[in-house]
Design a protein that fits this description.
The complex is a heterotrimer of chains A (296), B (304) and C (426).
Chain A: H1 12-39, H2 57-63, H3 66-97, H4 102-111, H5 113-116, H6 119-129, H7 135-142, H8 156-184, H9 188-196, H10 201-212, H11 214-230, H12 233-238, H13 250-259, H14 264-295
Helix pairs in contact in A: 1-14, 3-8, 3-11, 8-11, 11-14, 13-14
Chain B: H1 16-20, H2 25-59, H3 64-69, H4 81-87, H5 93-124, H6 128-143, H7 146-159, H8 166-175, H9 177-190, H10 195-203, H11 208-219, H12 221-237, H13 240-246, H14 254-261, H15 269-289, H16 291-302
Helix pairs in contact in B: 4-15, 5-8, 5-9, 5-12, 5-14, 6-9, 7-13, 8-13, 9-12, 10-11, 12-16
Chain C: H1 3-22, E1 35-41, H2 49-62, E2 66-72, H3 78-87, E3 94-96, H4 100-105, E4 109-110, H5 114-120, E5 139-142, E6 145-149, H6 150-155, H7 165-177, E7 181-184, H8 190-193, H9 195-208, H10 212-217, H11 226-241, H12 253-261, E8 265-270, E9 286-289, E10 299-305, E11 308-311, H13 317-329, H14 331-341, E12 344-345, H15 361-371, E13 375-378, H16 393-406, H17 410-425
Parallel strand pairs in C: 1-2, 1-3, 7-8, 10-13
Antiparallel strand pairs in C: 3-11, 4-11, 5-10, 5-12, 6-8, 6-9
Helix pairs in contact in C: 2-13, 9-11, 16-17
Subcellular location (chain B): Cell membrane
Membrane topology (chain B): Multi-pass membrane protein
Organism (chain B): Streptacidiphilus jiangxiensis
Chain lengths: 296, 304, 426
């Protein structure tokens, strides 16, 4: 860290802006979290004027809420699987596209496109691709890979898979570009030295590329995980959480509890759980990956 | 983030395989083949990867019959019918959605940039300990799933009499995770600005606001580009906030508009793709035009 | 930081934001001097955007100085959307075809003048909730009917429509033996996925005990009771027998309509609104019957409603009521709803001929179930009277219907419904 100018406290103008910024942070992040924490101890219902303090009743209810267990399991498995797949695909894709000729530059440009599109658009287009009489079935049938149309969005397990597929598709755009950038910061000399030592393609990847990608992987994995734990728009449009609530992520469950079931109090308790789980995962994974960076 | 981690330009960065493989004569043919194979493989995988986008593009210019008979074929003959239909809907969902989204994006970003940069500048001059605490808080703000704070946010806006209004939506955008992102990027970038530059200006007697505007902001220009580009994209594509905080009364943004307009009963694929294309064209055009800054922004994050 | 400065800063920032943004906001513009009211509608393949626009325009003409701003629910689940709007402080002034119970209990709805209701409708209390009418009973529906393709039945050698459950199973077997898929199911849309269960539960459970839903509120009966589980098990048996196509949960509601009308499947369990989608060209190929019962007795799952509820918080109750009443009696709406949405009209003292409509034979035959004396029960999950289910239970019921398409765990799903019911009525 560089030395910097002495802290100056007598700056009213800049200080005012700082207060506004901090105030907004407090108002729209800190206060909502505190409000959620407080509401989670009540049985508040937006349709009823009165709400009662119920202690930890909402939290004990969570322990035997099978819908919550299912949504949390789905969310966590989805986050883990998509993060893994999208980052593995991103590393592979980035390695493949790491060339400078025009055609590769065009391909790199296109690879990021899924990230640019709104989740709503992405999900609508995929809903069409994955429909019973959609293009994916069309293609797979004509190639003889499947005998009859697959209901990608129609059975619980396949719908879970499909949500993962679409999310991974979107995230791969991101992970590819991040890893491409990391690849390009690897000094060429390292490879040249390895060549002189007679290292083959795989050895070079394993011992130079992969470790040098670590900082990129850290950021890419962390952001993938956070994105997946937050995921709302793609699921809302692709399956609305169905069929049979199989693709109801915890974020969707909170919204259903709050806005359809009129259970603010319980919704707030589930929100607190999601907050703790997300924070725990993000912190653990970041620190693990940072440690790995050092070790490598 | 420092200058040394900036992405190398294409010219600086020699292609790895080309320089790496010893250019012995017998292997040249093999290498040419390998290169060609690599290109073909990369091309095929990229094509498969972007096929959903390709389908949206070609089908937006095809009739319903053309789409059903062969969804993957190029539009021959192409039709502009879907686009003109989408633009002449009686509810004007595309026109209204685009202008509302543009308004929301511009207002939010114009507020976040000065707020985020000035705050980060102010923060850069506090003690390391204080800075660490504040940045930690903002980092948490980035991670909080929006569903967690959605309900209380609506309550707060209702209390301020700003519920389901554009000022309310914009305020929630400015105060929520987006500001955290801006503070993060600016704070990272500020670390690379030598303190001497600012000290020199202070000696000259310039006030802090003046230093921020005249000296810091120009230095922060790359960070501003990153913040502006990514926030514009995210706010443009945002779905949950407009759906719940804004609601239907004040007109739709482009995402909630297409969500409603192509609803669950639309089996008219031609119209669907026409609407999708129009909704996607602005962010995609923006990305293609500002590609370098996009990648630079991501890179700075990746090598931070 | 001193307090004064902090406050001043906050106020300054707030003002800057407000002035900066309010100039740019594009709120709905009210007609000069008039009232603007919001009206929540929803769209289906037969209730299109242009139907709503026309009917709104007609209603506006009858109420001078009123402008209606239409809000379209993103799905047919307008109850959920109405709640979402309420939760975010935007409860509409008028709400089409919602389930009044939850909203009325919370004091959000204004009942109609009972004299006006009595004067105009055949079954004035047909969908009253706790003795008050929140939605005028303008029309009725049978949910579901079993529609069938006469040609396909003939091809499979079926000569009579099934009366008993055993007949029904035999019909399914014959159709399969003839290489046809017996029943269409638009399982991709949760409400459509629930139709067979609605039919079976209405016939078996409500047919035997019309007060079952009231008793469930009182906690006297449960979904896990043997008679309910036995009824649900019938649906499981149908699924396992292959009476629905394999990928039924991937079929969207809109596609299920075209699949059935184009002869891909022989039967379709759907609300009577499907009558509006029967193709005019070969309408005589289609017939309807009620979900069969074990003993062959006829049970008609019935629901009355068809118009809009009025918000108790509306800024202009007089104009809101005037519009709602005008809409509820507008002959043009009846014509469209009867012809396009298969609605059975319920205006007092009128017969079908009075509506000047052009309807199919299958519509007339189906309408006779309404006018005949027979056992009518509340359509399970669809009635909006005292038999309506608690808030959120419809969603749980739909989810259970979808789950039971792939899962054998009848008891587990019913236990979930009981738990959801108890949580919702706690």
């Amino acid at each position: 860290m560089t030395t910097r100018a002495r802290p100056r406290r007598g700056d009213p103008a800049l200080g005012t802006i700082a207060v506004v910024a901090l105030g907004l942070y407090v108002l729209f992040i800190l206060v909502p979290v505190i409000m959620s924490a407080w509401k989670s101890l009540t049985d508040e219902n937006p349709l009823l004027a009165q709400s009662r303090f119920v202690g930890i009743a909402n939290y004990t209810e969570m322990t035997h809420d099978s819908a919550l267990a299912a949504s949390l399991t789905f969310t966590l498995i989805l986050a883990a699987a998509v993060t893994l797949v999208a980052n593995a695909a991103g590393i592979g894709f980035a390695t493949l596209l790491n060339k400078t000729s025009l055609s590769f530059r065009v391909m790199r440009t296109v690879a990021f496109l899924p990230q640019v599109l709104s989740g709503v658009i992405v999900a609508f287009v995929w809903r069409y691709l994955l429909a019973q009489d959609g293009i994916l079935n069309h293609v797979l049938l004509s190639l003889g890979i499947i005998g009859q149309p697959v209901t990608w969005l129609g059975t619980p397990h396949l719908a879970m898979f499909s949500v993962g597929l679409v999310a991974a598709w979107v995230l791969t755009g991101f992970t590819t570009v991040v890893h491409l950038a990391a690849l390009q910061s690897i000094p060429v000399e390292l490879y040249q030295a390895a060549m002189v030592d007679g290292a083959g393609r795989w050895k070079r990847f394993r011992h130079i590329t992969f470790p040098m990608l670590a900082p990129g992987t850290t950021i890419s994995v962390t952001i993938s995980l956070i994105t997946m734990l937050k995921l709302y728009d793609i699921i809302a449009v692709l399956t609305s959480g169905g069929p049979a609530d199989s693709t109801q992520s915890t974020a969707l469950y909170i919204i259903q509890l709050a806005f359809t079931d009129d259970r603010y109090g319980y919704a707030s308790a589930v929100a607190m759980l999601l907050l703790v789980v997300s924070a725990g995962i993000a912190l653990t994974v970041t620190s693990l990956l940072r440690r790995r960076e050092v070790e490598l | 983030m420092t200058a040394s981690t900036e992405p190398r330009t294409a010219a600086q960065r020699p292609a790895v395989t080309a320089t790496a493989v010893p250019a012995s004569v017998p292997r040249r043919g093999l290498r040419a083949w390998a290169t060609k194979g690599h290109l073909v493989a990369a091309g095929l995988i990229t094509l498969a990867f972007v096929s959903p986008i390709y389908l949206t593009l070609v089908n937006a210019f095809k009739s319903q019959d053309q789409i059903i008979s062969n969804p993957a074929a190029p539009p021959a003959p192409p039709t502009l019918r879907n686009l003109t239909d989408a633009l002449s809907r009686p509810d004007r969902i595309i026109e209204i959605g685009l202008s509302n989204s543009a308004l929301t994006v511009v207002a939010s970003v114009l507020l976040i940039i000065p707020l985020g940069s000035a705050f980060s500048f102010w923060l850069s001059r506090r003690s390391a300990r204080f800075r660490g605490i504040v940045l930690g808080g903002f980092a948490a703000g980035l991670m909080i799933p929006p569903a967690v704070v959605l309900l209380p946010t609506i309550r707060i806006l209702t209390f301020l009499h700003l519920d389901h209004t554009y000022p309310g939506l914009i305020l929630a955008n400015v105060g929520g995770g987006y500001l955290s992102f801006a503070v993060f990027v600016y704070s990272g970038f500020l670390r690379s600005i030598p303190a001497e530059i600012i000290e020199a200006a202070t000696v000259d007697g310039a006030g802090s606001l003046r230093i921020w505007w005249k000296i810091v902001m120009p230095l922060l220009r790359p960070a501003t580009a990153t913040v502006a580009i990514f926030l514009s994209l995210w706010i443009w594509n945002d779905f949950m906030n407009p759906q719940f905080i804004l609601g239907p009364l004040k007109g739709q943004t482009i995402t909630t508009g297409i969500y409603l307009s192509v609803g669950q009963y639309s089996t008219n694929y031609a119209q669907l793709f026409g609407v999708m294309l129009l909704a996607a064209v602005i962010p995609v055009a923006g990305y293609l035009a500002l590609q370098k800054q996009f990648i630079a922004g991501l890179t700075s994050g990746a090598s931070k | 930081m001193r307090h004064t400065r902090l406050t001043a800063a906050c106020i300054a920032a707030g003002l800057a934001l407000l002035t900066g943004c309010s100039a740019a906001s594009t709120g709905g513009s009210a007609a000069a001097g008039g009232t603007t009211l919001t009206y929540l509608t929803f769209e289906t393949p037969s209730l299109t955007a242009s139907f709503w626009d026309t009917s709104i325009a007609n209603g506006e003409k009858k109420v001078p100085g009123l402008t209606i701003k239409k809000i379209v629910a993103p799905s047919t689940d307008r109850d959920a959307y109405a709640k979402q709007l309420q939760a975010s402080g935007q409860f509409p002034d008028l709400l089409q075809s919602i389930t009044p119970s939850t909203f009325a209990t919370a004091g959000l709805l204004k009942p109609y003048d009972q004299n006006w209701v009595n004067a105009n409708f055949m079954l004035p209390m047909g969908n009253a909730y706790k003795g008050k009418v929140y939605i005028p009973p303008t029309n009725s529906q049978i949910i579901p009917m079993v529609f069938y393709n006469k040609k396909m039945f003939a091809k499979a050698g079926i000569t009579a429509v099934p009366k008993t459950w055993a007949d029904f199973m035999a019909v399914n077997a014959k159709l399969k033996a003839a290489g046809m898929t017996p029943i269409e199911l638009g399982g991709g849309d949760p409400f459509a996925a629930s139709m067979p269960l609605v039919g079976i539960l209405s016939a078996d459970v409500l047919g035997k005990d019309p007060n079952w839903l009231q008793e469930r509120y009182a906690g006297k009966v449960h979904f896990t009771d043997a008679n309910v589980e036995a009824a649900v098990a019938k649906y499981r048996t149908m699924v396992k027998n292959g009476d629905f196509e394999d990928g039924a949960l991937g079929v969207k509601y809109a596609d299920s309509i075209t699949n059935f009308t184009s002869g891909k499947t022989a039967m379709y369990m759907m609300g009577s609104w499907f009558l509006g989608s029967v193709p005019k060209a070969n309408a005589d190929d289609f017939g309807s019957f009620m979900t069969p019962t074990d003993d062959g007795s006829l049970v008609v799952p019935f629901a009355v409603g068809g118009s809009m509820a009025i918000s108790a918080k509306t800024a202009d109750p007089a104009k809101a009521t005037a519009f709602a009443e005008a809409w509820s009696l507008d002959p043009a709406n009846y014509k469209t709803l009867i012809e396009g949405d298969g609605a059975f009209p319920m205006l007092k003292g009128k017969t079908l001929a009075d509506y000047n409509v052009n309807v199919t034979q299958v519509f007339k035959d189906s309408y006779s179930y309404v006018t005949d004396q027979n056992t009518k029960v509340s359509a399970f999950g669809w009635a909006t009277n005292d038999d309506s289910m608690p808030s959120g239970l419809n969603d749980a019921f739909y989810a259970a219907s979808q789950a039971l398409f792939t899962s054998d765990d009848v008891n587990g799903q019913m236990a979930k419904l009981d738990a959801a019911w108890d949580a919702a009525t706690k």
